[in-house]
Amino acid sequence: MDNSTQESHLRSDNNSVTYDSPHPLYAMAFSSNPNPQHHQRIAVGSFIEEYTNRVDILSFNPDTLSIKPQPSLSFDHPYPPTKLMFHPATHSSLQKTSSDLLATSGDYLRLWEVRENSVEALSLFNNSKTSEFCAPLTSFDWNEIEPKRIGTSSIDTTCTIWDIERGVVETQLIAHDKEVYDIAWGESRVFASVSADGSVRIFDLRDKEHSTI
């Protein structure tokens, strides 16, 4: 079913609103951009067992409890996105416009600018220092205190901290003995990760004793 024909409906019994996607869904994100021109944006990522997947941008109106697709803002994504996040800051110059900055993970970390009627791919970040290919990313987290910083987790046992403004790796750690499945910031330079090895580990980037690759 084409996205343009999708409609939301209100379930009065539990005060919920539903959007039915034509694809199985795996990841989603809510925009914190308060711009009333497009209400609040919701990004949803498909889970299709093929190379080409989709990210759809929906418009949520909290006053009418309605969700509408924005077909002009839907775009192809290589492989299923493992996580989606909008820029977390609410007072940056970007947040004063009709644009949103969206990050996605999968084969790489990618940044997209979601404009009023189009989406532009801005940056692609490769965790590998020796190959054009990157080990699949399981998740990432955007630092709310310092939004220039994004941390990613990977099946290759590493966590990578990116300065997305400069497009460079700040540090890359062998974080666990097995695949790293998730990462979360606690403070501006402190993050935690969890792994298939059964451990939770906390890293302080101010401590120069950590194992940097």
From TrEMBL:
Gene this chain is encoded by: A2
Keywords: Repeat, WD repeat
Organism: Pisum sativum
Keyword Repeat: yes
SMART domains: WD40
Repeat positions for WD: 173-213
Keyword Repeat: yes
Record InterPro entries: DCAF7-like, WD40/YVTN_repeat-like_dom_sf, WD40_repeat_dom_sf, WD40_rpt
Record-given protein name: Truncated A2 protein
